[in-house]
């Protein structure tokens, strides 16, 4: 049992386990909506679209997370506006806004006098470098997201599966879409800063997609996605400790393997 207990003597490993559990639950809450609405590209897009907010905060000497949140909200609203006004599919709107925001960030960065490693730390993330303050922030955001999605669950459900009916009974489908995109942006900013872009997208999409193959309802899908994310996170952390590999990438590989197993199991039905 030493392989199970030895890593727990290190505080950074225990905090990483806690972070993976919290982030898995948080990503499951929004990941189900991401997969059901065909927004799988948005996680990676959002994580890059926050660059101008990061650079702006850096140049102004402000808080990087606040700058990233502002950029994420603007990106979410931009995606919603482009999708509604142009009639293009959501993935096209995501691509247009994402590329524009990322290019703006690169231009701003090129005008910066020096490059700060703070930006790379934010964008890359490291689950083994999580602090107690990060965990409390993650818990707070998880509670907020659960409250918002719980309050608008029925409205979001109808707007997602039958927007025509939703409009007919007077639901503001456009505003509900904007709300969902903003919540996704909030989750992406927090999870990228905690565990990095690759793991954030994996927990947001891969675990939820695996759950989608096995679950029959949205609530079961969220619960299963959280469970699969936690399973992949814990197994991946222990493997990375034993094999001395990158924690985030190892967890992503485990999550991918779990998805393949779910796919094979689904095909046997």
Description:
- This protein is mostly helical and 269 residues long.
- It has one domain: ABC transporter involved in vitamin B12 uptake, BtuC (Orthogonal Bundle).
- It has 14 helices and no strands.
- The chain has helices spanning 2-5, 11-36, 42-49, 51-60, 64-86, 90-110, 117-124, 132-151, 153-161, 163-168, 173-195, 197-214, 218-243, 247-268.
- Helix 12 packs across helix 13 (218-243).
- The protein is globular, with a radius of gyration of 19 Å.
- InterPro entries: ABC_BtuC-like, ABC_TroCD.
- It is a multi-pass membrane protein.
- Keywords: Membrane, Transmembrane, Transmembrane helix, Transport.
Secondary structure blueprint with pairings:
Layout: H1 2-5, H2 11-36, H3 42-49, H4 51-60, H5 64-86, H6 90-110, H7 117-124, H8 132-151, H9 153-161, H10 163-168, H11 173-195, H12 197-214, H13 218-243, H14 247-268
Keywords: Membrane, Transmembrane, Transmembrane helix, Transport
Subcellular location: Cell membrane; Membrane
Transmembrane segments: 12-36, 56-82, 94-115, 135-152, 173-192, 198-215, 222-241, 247-265
């Amino acid at each position: 049992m030493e392989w199970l207990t030895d890593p727990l003597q290190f505080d950074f490993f225990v905090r990483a386990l806690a972070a993976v559990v919290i982030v898995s639950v948080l990503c499951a809450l929004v990941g189900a909506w991401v997969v059901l609405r065909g927004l799988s590209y948005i996680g990676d897009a959002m994580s890059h679209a926050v660059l101008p907010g990061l650079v702006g905060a850096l140049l102004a000497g402000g808080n990087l997370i606040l700058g990233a949140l502002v950029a994420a909200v603007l990106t979410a609203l931009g995606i919603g506006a482009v999708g509604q006004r142009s009639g293009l599919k959501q993935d096209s709107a995501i691509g247009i806004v994402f590329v524009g925001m990322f290019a703006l960030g690169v231009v701003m960065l090129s005008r910066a006098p020096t490059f700060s490693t703070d930006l790379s730390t934010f964008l890359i993330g490291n689950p083994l470098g999580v602090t107690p303050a990060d965990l409390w922030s993650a818990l707070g955001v998880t509670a907020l997201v659960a409250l918002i999605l719980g309050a608008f669950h029925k409205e979001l459900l109808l707007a997602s599966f039958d927007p025509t009916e939703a409009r007919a009974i007077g639901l503001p489908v456009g505003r509900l879409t904007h709300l969902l995109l903003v919540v996704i942006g909030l989750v992406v900013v927090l999870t990228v800063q905690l565990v990095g872009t690759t793991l954030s997208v994996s927990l947001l999409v891969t675990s939820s997609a695996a759950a989608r193959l096995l679950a029959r309802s949205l609530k079961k899908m969220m619960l299963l996605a959280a469970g699969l994310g936690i399973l992949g996170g814990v197994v991946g952390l222990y493997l990375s400790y034993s094999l001395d590999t990158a924690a985030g990438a190892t967890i992503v590989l485990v999550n991918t393997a779990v998805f393949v197993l779910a796919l094979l199991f689904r095909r046997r039905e």
